Amino acid sequence: MPPPRILLAALVLWPLLAAPCAVIGHLSLTAQPGWQLDNSAGFGNISLSGLRLPASVPQLLHRAGVVGDPLYRYNELQQRWVALDTWTLSLWFQAPPDLLRHRAVLLRCDGLDTVASIQLNGAPLALTANAHRCHTFNVTHLLVPGANVLNITLLPAPQYAAEQAAAYPYEVPATQQVGAIPDYNFVRKAASDFGWDWGPALAPAGINGGIQLLGHSSALLEGVAVRQQHLVNGSVLLAVDGFLLPVQSPALEVQQQQQQQLQGNQLARAGERGRLLLQLTSPDGLQHWQAEAAVSIPYFDSHTSECDAMANCSCCSGRSADSACPWLLPRAGGTQQTAFAAQAAAQPVKRSLSILLDSPRLWWPHDFGSQPLYSLRLTYLPASPASSGSAGRMRAGQRSGSISNTEQQQLNGQLRFAAAAAGVDEAAAEAEEAASATHSSTVTRRIGLRTVQLVTDPLPDGETFYFRVNKQPVYARGANAVPAHVFEPAVSDASLHRLVADAKVARMNMLRVWGGGRYFKDAFYEACDEQGVLVWQEAMFACAMYPRDQAFLREAWLEVRQQAYRLSSHPSVAIWGGNNENEAAFQWFPAPSRNPKLYASDYSKLFVEVVRQAVLGVDPGIPFVDSSPSNGVLSREPYVKRWGDVADSRYGDVHFYDYSSDAWDPATYPAAKFVSEFGFMSLPSFSAYRQVTEPQDWRLGAPMTAFRMRHAGGLEQLQQQMEWHFLHAPQGAGASAPQPAASSGEQQQQAPQPQLEQQAQQAQQAQRLNGGAGLLSLHPNGSLKRRAVPAQLADPDPQGQEQRQFEAFTYLSQLQQALAYQAAIHQWRRNKADPTARTMGVLFWQLNDVWQGPSWSAINSDGSWRLAQHFAAEFYKPVLVSGVKVGQDVQVHLTNDLPVHVTGLLAVDIVPYAATDPSHIAALIRLNVTIAAFDSRMVWSGSVAGDILMATGLVPHLQQDQQQAWQGNDTAPGSSSGSDSGSGGSSGSSGSGIDSRGGDGGRRRVEAADVFLRLRFCPTAVQRQQTAAGITVPPPEPFKHNLIKLGGLVEGSLHGGSDTAADGQAGAHSGGSESNAPPCDAAVALLDGAAADQCEAAGRLLQCSESLVLLTEPKAARMAPANVSIQLTHGGRQQEDADGSYLATPADGGGTNVTTVSLRSDAVALFVAVENSARAGHFVGSGTLLLLPWQPQTLRFEEAVHPTEHREDVLGNISVYWLQKEMAALQSATWLTEGAAHAAAARAAWFLAGFATVLLVALGVCGWVKHAR
């Protein structure tokens, strides 16, 4: 046994060995500029050189000018050959001598998309078929000094998938979208790459990530997994798993090493020994913890078990794979990967150590607190071969502690003194450390400490389904995220950070990463950590049955495990899901119905055994659901599914889509526990759409309109909803039964005389409602010139009229979508207090987009916002006021998602559409109201006729032009509106008002069609729970508000108070105290250690909430014509020219230039939206804006992604839309049947295109098989 003083010296010297580590041998091949691309293995007509990666093949071809923009017009079809061709990427490179001196050299390929045949210096390495994971190969004996050549041949994924499907012993069905390529479920590539009902079918091949050579002479630390155990005393035990890639020794050396045995308590194969050093730094940088452990790592050979890299996996028995999990053993052939044994890379082994934190700072979702992130650094230090005796003196075990920066400096000196006293040669120790550092490897992470639970408590009829973070119940508000671009290499870190920031600005606290796309890059999860946005992460399987041969299961295992430990350190990841809608898909296809046991067995094998164990083997504590939607489980241990109808709202989460019912009717939406998907589609913003189309495409009847619609029947569904809410159906056409296709000329010939007269009146109405603003153009001299709006809707230029109608339809489709989302989300948030519902989460479909086409998204593909995203910033506020019309009554509800009780002022105003002065508005309600934490309740109810119309008073005097403007409506002034029954219509008593002066002199009876309600709740104070000293506060229950005792009142103040669009940015901040309690801590803290965080969050989030309640459908409302004028300012200065145009100039003194638009109206203008067609971005508050004649508004422009250099073209063309103007533009309905005809033609064209694609794929399969063999 070594002398005690040597052991003491070794112990105290270990903290000093954390010096910066030398980098292992590394050569980035993607950074090399000399890549070549050719299709000599395919069509053989293209050869490009001097290329840079990462990039997809379509991107490379586009950059070289071989093809145009793949998203432009019909290029998706014209460039289909690109996806069906075979492409080879080649690189000649020099292998540095320093790299070749390493014991092993690995080729690491991240993002091979997808079917790749890899050769190095002519020797085959592998055939890969999984774009969702990193592939690593041993190339030690293939590299040569000097010049080397790497060839990556990308075979067409559609052909590969078709070949795999044809060879499978039975049918494995998958969803077939309009215009999509089949068989996506047979290749591990983003399913949406094959086409979806919101995106194109490009199936791009390429290199999406980095390709690099890594040289190492000892085990290589390649990743970490982080697990947290929160103890009852508030401390946190942080367990960190390091994944080490063993060095791959020659076969003879392996045989020699296997004959040796380690001395100790257990026997193991001889291998490498070293140390793991874990360092942790507090968010403020003032505290440091460290732990270290001696580790032994077996050399890699063909018998190395994958169980070395797993924890808590039922597949592992001892150190070998159990026969129940054959996918753990590498196999050649099969549906996914063939790796040649000579180049097989080692699988990483897991080695662990831990740190105890006594007073941790907890990470919270942004609406509950702050997001403190600890800096974690894990280093592997191999023992030097020349100092094996020194290595033997190290004691296996761990050491941890917390020290400050000052203490660290003092301790360094003490340690050196202790080493000298122990008789250890300090110079020798430093030399040993230097030798070790040359082979060391380090991984860094930023982590947050938190607990997360999925609560599924039993109910009398069902189960709950909601999340707790740090024991606090969280109402999930958010959306579903799809891939950020059709080409993964085009996704920048900045765009991902902006996407998450846009979600947070809209008050979202959860994003669901949809299983039909891709795992996001690290930047997305880092942004969610920083912004306090929770992530529902799904494995990449969607809407299909999947094969379950052993090769496929192994690829799934490797993929999910790799992603699980990559994401395990992110506190934002709150739950893992096995797939999207695969269980629901059992009801979609005939095959599972004929043989349900077979497909249920396949499902359980892949998602319950493989995927679930891959996730829980990395982090046993993470919540997991095998599918979304699902009915949950009967038992978690053992894991037993509750099979059944996944639409059953009593259990689990639900996905809800209903395009035939009224999307604005709250009764349409079921009483679900958690809604993880729902939505309604709209067209992309015109400013985004025009980027990839031409003027001839800017009409509703254009073939392009139908071509971009990938949702079957989508245009008809949009039309149906519009006829219910905005438009009057054409003669003889009902909203529930669109008419067969016919040309617009035939309609005009058959239209009766009254309809022609009505169209003429509607054209006159459009002229008045269009106003005088129109478009502003930025001239070369920098001045903004107002472009004249056509004098009449019946423009002499038909294309101009059709474009105007197209823009109006686009706006109304987005407003229709936004109001549908508002109706549904208001209802589901109110349902939190409904004992039959107890809804605790809503995630709408979908947040973002991949191209400029119709979809369910709230953010366009260029980063600009649709109206739904603007509405989300209101309907997702954590303290919400909402109104709902139930029969002939209106109810006003308050909803509170915060862990504090909120007191504020509720105001309900009656606003006439024809109001021109503040005196025309009638104040209906002014109440001081307190809403308890996590509560939702009705605070006022009244009848339309008896309470609202009676309180209105006189309707403002009606001008003659207003009377004319109303002629286009079915309802004439003074009559009852009965066309909206069941969904906000006015009939019977709700349509009656009071005749204030007998109806003479222009005065008349007030009706529901004359007014709307504006609801507003502004918080003024927060209240806390009152708890006696020493009493432990139990976790709050979101459904038991009557048990909460209110404590002292903490006064707050509202900053602002005006009715501006920016008023939502003002917050109510705690500012007082009571009973000697700290003002913030006592105000909102429900748990120890979170007081200041939650106080800050409450102060930031308590903002005025506002919403409108329309008493009739918009088409039945008597809206006054409105003329909106705008004035732009750039950089904080503006100058008006003599001709009335505006000259925008940059701000003096540098800095960020701010572009704002000021709007004025001569009448009430509803839902005013402003778009900038020159720059991607949005005007804050656009779309939700209620513009009153006496109250001008100013909106600030936010760019989608901040440019890296200053640009002056921020203004460009500014378009302004509002409800009255766009409704008037679409009252002529001749476009409807033409659009239906083109939609039918598009479906026929897609059938032919799909048949041609299948034929080309089938013809290419034989050639691919020949090439592969």
TrEMBL record:
InterPro entries: Beta-gal/glucu_dom_sf (IPR036156), Beta-mannosidase-like_N2 (IPR054593), Beta-mannosidase_GH2 (IPR050887), Galactose-bd-like_sf (IPR008979), GH (IPR017853), Ig-like_fold (IPR013783). The chain crosses the membrane at residues 1244-1265. Residues 386-405, 731-767, 960-1003, 1055-1076 are annotated as: Disordered. Keywords: Glycosidase, Hydrolase, Membrane, Signal, Transmembrane, Transmembrane helix. Its EC number is 3.2.1.25. GO terms for biological process: glycoprotein catabolic process. GO terms for molecular function: beta-mannosidase activity. Residues 35-207 form the Beta-mannosidase-like galactose-binding domain. Pfam families: Glyco_hydro_2_N2 (PF22666). Residues 1-18 form the signal peptide. It catalyses: Hydrolysis of terminal, non-reducing beta-D-mannose residues in beta-D-mannosides. Residues 386-402 have a biased composition (Low complexity). Residues 981-991 have a biased composition (Gly residues). This is beta-mannosidase. The lineage of its organism: Eukaryota, Viridiplantae, Chlorophyta, core chlorophytes, Trebouxiophyceae.
